Amino acid sequence: MGLYVKNKFPLVSLVVFLILVTSSYGRFTIKISEGDISTICSKAKNPSFCFNFFKSTPATKTLDLSGIAKFLINDATKDASVTQKQFESLAKSTADPRSKNIYNQCLENYKNALGEFDAALKALEAKDNASLNIKVSAAMTDGDSCNSELPSVKPSPQLLKQISDIDNLSGIVLVISNILPKN
Protein backbone atom coordinates (compact mmCIF):
# COMPACT_ATOMS: atom_id res chain seq x y z
CA MET A 1 0.00 0.00 0.00
CA GLY A 2 2.85 2.41 0.84
CA LEU A 3 4.36 1.77 -2.60
CA TYR A 4 1.06 2.65 -4.30
CA VAL A 5 0.87 6.08 -2.56
CA LYS A 6 4.51 6.87 -3.37
CA ASN A 7 3.91 6.29 -7.09
CA LYS A 8 0.87 8.63 -7.14
CA PHE A 9 2.62 11.54 -5.40
CA PRO A 10 4.53 12.77 -8.49
CA LEU A 11 1.34 12.59 -10.56
CA VAL A 12 -0.69 14.54 -7.98
CA SER A 13 2.10 17.13 -7.73
CA LEU A 14 2.15 17.53 -11.49
CA VAL A 15 -1.63 17.98 -11.65
CA VAL A 16 -1.57 20.60 -8.87
CA PHE A 17 1.32 22.41 -10.60
CA LEU A 18 -0.53 22.46 -13.94
CA ILE A 19 -3.68 23.80 -12.29
CA LEU A 20 -1.71 26.62 -10.66
CA VAL A 21 0.11 27.52 -13.88
CA THR A 22 -3.08 27.40 -15.94
CA SER A 23 -5.05 29.54 -13.50
CA SER A 24 -2.30 32.16 -13.23
CA TYR A 25 -1.91 32.25 -17.02
CA GLY A 26 -5.65 32.84 -17.38
CA ARG A 27 -5.45 35.97 -15.26
CA PHE A 28 -3.02 37.59 -17.69
CA THR A 29 -4.97 36.86 -20.87
CA ILE A 30 -8.46 38.02 -20.06
CA LYS A 31 -10.53 38.29 -23.21
CA ILE A 32 -12.52 41.43 -23.82
CA SER A 33 -16.07 41.41 -22.52
CA GLU A 34 -19.21 43.05 -23.85
CA GLY A 35 -18.95 45.46 -20.92
CA ASP A 36 -15.41 46.40 -21.99
CA ILE A 37 -16.63 47.01 -25.53
CA SER A 38 -19.46 49.22 -24.24
CA THR A 39 -17.02 51.19 -22.10
CA ILE A 40 -14.54 51.62 -24.94
CA CYS A 41 -17.14 52.54 -27.55
CA SER A 42 -18.98 54.98 -25.28
CA LYS A 43 -15.70 56.93 -24.96
CA ALA A 44 -14.65 56.60 -28.61
CA LYS A 45 -14.63 59.50 -31.04
CA ASN A 46 -17.26 57.72 -33.15
CA PRO A 47 -19.24 55.28 -30.96
CA SER A 48 -21.28 53.96 -33.90
CA PHE A 49 -18.14 53.07 -35.86
CA CYS A 50 -16.67 51.46 -32.74
CA PHE A 51 -19.68 49.24 -32.03
CA ASN A 52 -19.92 48.25 -35.72
CA PHE A 53 -16.21 47.45 -35.78
CA PHE A 54 -16.44 45.06 -32.82
CA LYS A 55 -19.67 43.54 -34.11
CA SER A 56 -18.23 42.93 -37.60
CA THR A 57 -14.80 41.72 -36.44
CA PRO A 58 -15.24 38.43 -34.59
CA ALA A 59 -11.47 38.02 -34.14
CA THR A 60 -11.59 40.72 -31.47
CA LYS A 61 -13.67 38.47 -29.21
CA THR A 62 -10.63 36.26 -28.58
CA LEU A 63 -8.22 39.09 -27.72
CA ASP A 64 -7.38 41.01 -24.57
CA LEU A 65 -7.17 44.82 -24.54
CA SER A 66 -3.54 44.86 -25.63
CA GLY A 67 -4.28 42.41 -28.44
CA ILE A 68 -7.16 44.54 -29.64
CA ALA A 69 -4.98 47.66 -29.61
CA LYS A 70 -2.40 45.81 -31.71
CA PHE A 71 -5.11 44.56 -34.08
CA LEU A 72 -6.47 48.11 -34.49
CA ILE A 73 -3.03 49.65 -35.05
CA ASN A 74 -2.23 47.01 -37.67
CA ASP A 75 -5.56 47.67 -39.38
CA ALA A 76 -4.96 51.44 -39.33
CA THR A 77 -1.42 50.88 -40.65
CA LYS A 78 -2.74 48.83 -43.55
CA ASP A 79 -5.31 51.52 -44.39
CA ALA A 80 -2.69 54.29 -44.04
CA SER A 81 -0.38 52.44 -46.42
CA VAL A 82 -3.12 52.10 -49.03
CA THR A 83 -4.05 55.77 -48.52
CA GLN A 84 -0.44 56.85 -48.95
CA LYS A 85 -0.22 54.94 -52.24
CA GLN A 86 -3.43 56.55 -53.46
CA PHE A 87 -2.06 60.02 -52.71
CA GLU A 88 1.16 59.12 -54.50
CA SER A 89 -0.83 58.04 -57.54
CA LEU A 90 -3.00 61.18 -57.43
CA ALA A 91 0.07 63.42 -57.15
CA LYS A 92 1.65 61.77 -60.18
CA SER A 93 -1.51 61.89 -62.29
CA THR A 94 -2.67 65.46 -61.75
CA ALA A 95 -1.47 68.44 -63.75
CA ASP A 96 -2.98 71.08 -61.45
CA PRO A 97 -0.14 72.49 -59.29
CA ARG A 98 -2.41 73.23 -56.33
CA SER A 99 -3.89 69.73 -56.31
CA LYS A 100 -0.44 68.19 -56.80
CA ASN A 101 0.81 70.17 -53.79
CA ILE A 102 -2.10 69.01 -51.61
CA TYR A 103 -1.66 65.37 -52.68
CA ASN A 104 2.10 65.52 -52.05
CA GLN A 105 1.50 67.02 -48.60
CA CYS A 106 -0.99 64.24 -47.79
CA LEU A 107 1.49 61.68 -49.11
CA GLU A 108 4.10 63.00 -46.65
CA ASN A 109 1.56 63.10 -43.82
CA TYR A 110 0.66 59.45 -44.33
CA LYS A 111 4.34 58.46 -44.55
CA ASN A 112 4.73 60.13 -41.15
CA ALA A 113 1.59 58.42 -39.83
CA LEU A 114 3.01 55.03 -40.82
CA GLY A 115 6.12 55.79 -38.78
CA GLU A 116 3.97 56.84 -35.82
CA PHE A 117 1.94 53.62 -36.02
CA ASP A 118 5.15 51.60 -36.07
CA ALA A 119 6.37 53.46 -32.98
CA ALA A 120 2.94 52.91 -31.37
CA LEU A 121 3.29 49.15 -31.82
CA LYS A 122 6.70 49.27 -30.14
CA ALA A 123 5.26 51.32 -27.26
CA LEU A 124 2.41 48.82 -26.89
CA GLU A 125 4.87 45.94 -26.79
CA ALA A 126 6.90 47.79 -24.14
CA LYS A 127 3.67 48.46 -22.19
CA ASP A 128 4.40 52.19 -22.41
CA ASN A 129 0.81 53.45 -22.51
CA ALA A 130 1.78 57.13 -22.47
CA SER A 131 3.99 56.74 -25.55
CA LEU A 132 1.34 54.60 -27.21
CA ASN A 133 -1.16 57.40 -26.72
CA ILE A 134 1.28 60.06 -27.99
CA LYS A 135 2.23 58.07 -31.12
CA VAL A 136 -1.35 57.26 -32.09
CA SER A 137 -2.34 60.90 -31.47
CA ALA A 138 0.52 62.01 -33.72
CA ALA A 139 -0.65 59.66 -36.48
CA MET A 140 -4.15 61.10 -36.16
CA THR A 141 -2.78 64.64 -36.35
CA ASP A 142 -0.94 63.75 -39.57
CA GLY A 143 -4.23 62.61 -41.07
CA ASP A 144 -6.13 65.63 -39.77
CA SER A 145 -3.55 67.95 -41.34
CA CYS A 146 -4.25 66.35 -44.68
CA ASN A 147 -8.03 66.50 -44.23
CA SER A 148 -8.09 70.28 -43.90
CA GLU A 149 -7.02 70.75 -47.53
CA LEU A 150 -8.82 67.84 -49.18
CA PRO A 151 -12.27 69.38 -49.72
CA SER A 152 -10.80 71.79 -52.26
CA VAL A 153 -9.62 68.92 -54.51
CA LYS A 154 -12.71 66.71 -54.11
CA PRO A 155 -11.15 63.26 -53.55
CA SER A 156 -13.09 60.06 -54.13
CA PRO A 157 -15.61 58.95 -51.50
CA GLN A 158 -13.60 55.72 -51.08
CA LEU A 159 -10.47 57.70 -50.16
CA LEU A 160 -12.42 59.85 -47.71
CA LYS A 161 -13.87 56.71 -46.11
CA GLN A 162 -10.39 55.21 -45.70
CA ILE A 163 -9.16 58.40 -44.07
CA SER A 164 -12.17 58.40 -41.75
CA ASP A 165 -11.62 54.73 -40.89
CA ILE A 166 -7.98 55.39 -39.95
CA ASP A 167 -9.10 58.22 -37.69
CA ASN A 168 -11.83 56.09 -36.07
CA LEU A 169 -9.55 53.06 -35.55
CA SER A 170 -6.95 55.35 -34.00
CA GLY A 171 -9.58 56.89 -31.74
CA ILE A 172 -10.46 53.47 -30.35
CA VAL A 173 -6.76 52.79 -29.66
CA LEU A 174 -6.56 56.06 -27.73
CA VAL A 175 -9.42 54.97 -25.49
CA ILE A 176 -7.79 51.57 -24.95
CA SER A 177 -4.42 53.18 -24.18
CA ASN A 178 -6.10 55.03 -21.32
CA ILE A 179 -7.60 51.89 -19.79
CA LEU A 180 -4.73 49.43 -20.29
CA PRO A 181 -3.21 48.33 -16.99
CA LYS A 182 -0.38 50.61 -15.87
CA ASN A 183 3.04 49.14 -15.17
UniProtKB/TrEMBL annotation:
InterPro entries: Invertase/methylesterase_inhib, PCW_Enzyme_Inhibitor, Pectinesterase_inhib_dom, PMEI_plant
Family note: Belongs to the PMEI family.
Taxonomic classification: Eukaryota, Viridiplantae, Streptophyta, Embryophyta, Tracheophyta
Gene3D superfamilies the record matches: Invertase/pectin methylesterase inhibitor family protein
Name of the molecule in the record: Pectinesterase inhibitor 2-like
SMART domains cross-referenced by the UniProt entry: PMEI
Lineage: superkingdom: Eukaryota
Source organism of the structure: Raphanus sativus (Radish)
Signal peptide (residue range): 1-26
Any GO MF annotation of the entry: pectinesterase inhibitor activity
Keywords: Disulfide bond, Signal
Domain Pectinesterase inhibitor: 32-176
